[in-house]
Design brief:
The protein has 341 residues and is of the alpha/beta class. It is built from 8 helices and 18 strands. The strands form 6 sheets. The chain has an 8-stranded mixed sheet with strand order 4-3-2-1-7-12-15-18, with helices on both faces. The two termini are 34 Å apart.
């Protein structure tokens, strides 16, 4: 029996996409492709509705049958949970990333080697899927014996008010060795992860754009030692560049930098991304938007999502200089390999 875990994030403005429908469409896609008539179990974790629903397809005598069961309920998400567009603190009843990881670990304990896919249908950015748009402020606030509010630094520990996935989720402070072993044990040898949302940052996109249109740039074969001079970086571009480089560049009006350093800027973002963290933690291939690109909904019946095709120069850069390949469904999601360093 093959298992699938499909997560539906909240419909957030300005693009309130129907993530639960995408989960249902993904189920239809897998069931239609199941020519061998193997038993399939789909677990839908709908964050907004607070529902965990299991749809099981079996084929007794070669005839498809389906059963549906609601196995757990969480607090539904409403506008009352938000301060503007930011999810507020103090809602422990709302589904969290930790509940998703627990669902995977449960498969690893009860049916190891059967998880074919963990998919996040949600908004996203380079640091992970956005399920509710919560905040990790890095501190735990509580009252001391005198009734005064104190803040305790959390370090690598998860913020208990945070509901969204984070790259630190697989650190031993949040997922111990036995839990991580159960998480990994869930996956079939051909199992995959998929984060269907964006990984867009304006500065990464703009810096790649500046590079790809530089007169000395080559789409392949440019040596790391090649010095490039840019006079079109913004102060924000330079701040982002310096944040991911060990040696800061002092002036945005004349950025003199080697191609190898620009590659390091992107490499450091890849390694810091949620796609990479999930790939390493699970030991399985993980598909997701590449840093500096964004996803959008399909058109037509039973839509899913795809990465905007206008990032073709970015795709070529990632392919030729980092060896990235892309998803087999031709949706232009990059393959985060667990072995990437």
């Amino acid at each position: 029996m093959k298992h699938f875990v499909l997560v539906a994030g909240c419909k957030l403005p300005p693009k309130q996409l129907p993530f639960r429908s995408y989960c249902e469409n993904r189920i239809r896609q897998h069931v239609a492709a199941n020519k061998a008539k193997e038993d399939l179990v789909f677990q839908i974790l709908d964050v907004e509705r607070g529902e965990v629903v299991v749809r099981t397809f079996t084929y007794p005598g070669g005839t498809r049958t389906e059963s549906v069961a609601a196995v757990r309920s969480f607090e539904p998400v409403t506008r009352a949970h938000y301060n503007g567009r930011v999810f507020g603190e103090g809602h422990p009843g709302v589904m969290s990333a930790t509940d998703i990881y627990a669902a995977v670990r449960n498969i690893g304990i009860r049916a190891p080697g059967t998880l074919m896919e963990l998919s996040f249908f949600s908004h996203g950015y380079a640091n992970g899927p956005v399920l509710v748009n919560s905040v990790d402020d890095g501190q735990l606030e509580r009252l001391n014996p005198r009734g005064q509010l104190e803040a305790e630094p959390l370090g690598m520990r998860r913020d208990p008010d945070d509901r969204d996935p984070r790259t630190k989720d697989f650190h031993e402070a949040n997922m111990g060795s036995e839990e991580l072993a159960a998480f990994r044990a869930a996956y079939h040898p051909d199992g995959i992860n998929w984060s269907w949302g964006c990984a867009f940052t304006h500065d990464a996109n703009e810096i790649l754009h500046h590079l790809e249109y530089h007169p000395d740039y080559r789409s392949s074969g440019l040596p790391d030692g090649k010095v490039l001079v840019f006079r079109n970086f913004t102060p924000a571009n330079l701040a982002h560049l310096n944040a991911f480089l060990n040696v800061p560049v002092p002036d945005h009006r004349k950025v003199e930098i080697t191609f190898g350093e620009l590659k390091l800027y992107i490499r450091n973002q890849i390694v810091a991304s949620y796609g990479h963290a999930l790939a390493v933690a699970s030991g399985r291939r993980t598909f997701g938007a590449l840093v500096g690109t964004y996803a959008e909904p399909d058109q037509g019946p039973r839509p899913l999502m795809h990465v905007n095709p206008n990032f073709s120069r970015h795709f070529t850069f990632y392919r030729n200089y980092f060896g990235f390949t892309f998803d087999p469904e031709r949706r232009r999601y990059g393959l985060y390999d667990p072995a990437f360093t």
